């Protein structure tokens, strides 16, 4: 099943055409990650899928409905988006920010409800922001601020979540924590997750579906183990590398060559035990993920 689909989508910034006649189908209940170099159009595409950017022509379909025909609140009940670098008003507390995620469910007949309170508290707990609920957003560190915005997105309670570089400003431990959380939402609640990531190895580890973008075109789309290889990385990033199997997860792991510093082991062959473990992990992954 398809969660989001683009039909003959054309996107531009000013006089610059970014995408031309793009047809894309993102699977429902899966994690899709957009990868590509800076400026290739990943964020532009994500914004268009959320109706934050109007296309020159073409159509975006959300769960079978033309997104252009839906009311703003209706879209907000179906889809949440966390853009790059969001800004909160001065003096706004974390709790007040997270409560904004329940705005789509408010009207003059229905004000704040017990369900709203439950969703806000759960979002704070999932992101470990409960102890910081009374702090102002502008007093937080970059990583804490990012987690607060993610909490607001989760409080929205939508079946589809779009995130533009959600691990920005986070150290490695918190990057894994956020991606594990998104994985949990997908596994346990079948949420559709669509996000932009710069770390290719984390993208391969967490994504069911990868969309590789180069200069406004989709170079490849599919399961990480089916499409991520040395040729794709060279095409998308203009980078020489080796792609080996992650010894823990069996997913593709990109080991880049340096443009200045050259690799010591030009003909590196993984240890036999590591190779065997990787092969077993890959087989298990493929069994769990239907074609």
UniProtKB/TrEMBL annotation:
<dbReference type="GO" id="GO:0005886">
    <property type="term" value="C:plasma membrane"/>
</dbReference>
<dbReference type="GO" id="GO:0016887">
    <property type="term" value="F:ATP hydrolysis activity"/>
</dbReference>
<keyword id="KW-0408">Iron</keyword>
<dbReference type="InterPro" id="IPR017871">
    <property type="entry name" value="ABC_transporter-like_CS"/>
</dbReference>
<keyword id="KW-0067">ATP-binding</keyword>
<feature type="domain" description="ABC transporter">
    <location>
        <begin position="4"/>
        <end position="240"/>
    </location>
</feature>
<keyword id="KW-0547">Nucleotide-binding</keyword>
<keyword id="KW-0410">Iron transport</keyword>
<protein>
    <submittedName>
        <fullName>ATP-binding cassette domain-containing protein</fullName>
    </submittedName>
</protein>
<keyword id="KW-1003">Cell membrane</keyword>
<keyword id="KW-0406">Ion transport</keyword>
<dbReference type="Pfam" id="PF00005">
    <property type="entry name" value="ABC_tran"/>
</dbReference>
<dbReference type="GO" id="GO:0006826">
    <property type="term" value="P:iron ion transport"/>
</dbReference>
<dbReference type="InterPro" id="IPR003439">
    <property type="entry name" value="ABC_transporter-like_ATP-bd"/>
</dbReference>
<keyword id="KW-0813">Transport</keyword>
<dbReference type="InterPro" id="IPR027417">
    <property type="entry name" value="P-loop_NTPase"/>
</dbReference>
<dbReference type="InterPro" id="IPR003593">
    <property type="entry name" value="AAA+_ATPase"/>
</dbReference>
<dbReference type="InterPro" id="IPR051535">
    <property type="entry name" value="Siderophore_ABC-ATPase"/>
</dbReference>
<dbReference type="GO" id="GO:0005524">
    <property type="term" value="F:ATP binding"/>
</dbReference>
<keyword id="KW-0472">Membrane</keyword>
């Amino acid at each position: 099943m398809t969660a989001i689909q683009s039909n003959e989508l054309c996107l531009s910034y000013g006089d610059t055409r970014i995408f031309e006649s793009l047809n894309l189908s993102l699977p429902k209940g899966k994690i899709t990650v957009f990868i590509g170099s800076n400026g290739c159009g990943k964020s532009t595409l994500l914004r268009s899928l959320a109706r934050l950017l109007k296309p020159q022509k073409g159509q975006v379909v959300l769960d079978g409905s033309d997104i252009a025909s839906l009311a703003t609140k209706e879209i907000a009940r179906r889809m949440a988006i966390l853009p790059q670098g969001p800004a909160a008003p001065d003096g706004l507390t974390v709790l007040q920010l997270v409560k904004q995620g329940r705005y789509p469910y408010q009207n003059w007949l229905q004000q704040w409800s017990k369900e709203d309170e439950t969703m806000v508290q759960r979002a704070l707990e999932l992101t470990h922001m409960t102890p910081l609920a009374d702090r102002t957003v502008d007093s937080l560190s970059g990583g804490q601020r990012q987690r607060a915005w993610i909490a607001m997105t989760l409080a929205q309670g939508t079946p589809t979540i779009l995130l533009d570089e959600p691990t920005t400003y986070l150290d490695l431990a918190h990057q894994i924590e956020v991606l594990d959380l998104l994985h949990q939402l997908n596994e346990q609640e079948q949420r559709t997750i669509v996000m932009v990531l710069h770390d290719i190895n984390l993208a391969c580890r967490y994504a069911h579906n990868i969309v590789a973008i180069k200069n406004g075109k989709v170079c490849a789309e599919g399961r990480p183990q089916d499409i991520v290889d040395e040729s794709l990385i060279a095409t998308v990033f203009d980078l020489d590398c080796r792609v080996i199997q992650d010894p823990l997860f069996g997913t593709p792991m990109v080991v880049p060559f340096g443009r200045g510093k050259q690799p010591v082991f030009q003909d590196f062959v993984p240890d036999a035990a590591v190779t065997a473990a990787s092969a077993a992990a890959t087989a298990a992954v493929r069994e769990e993920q239907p074609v």
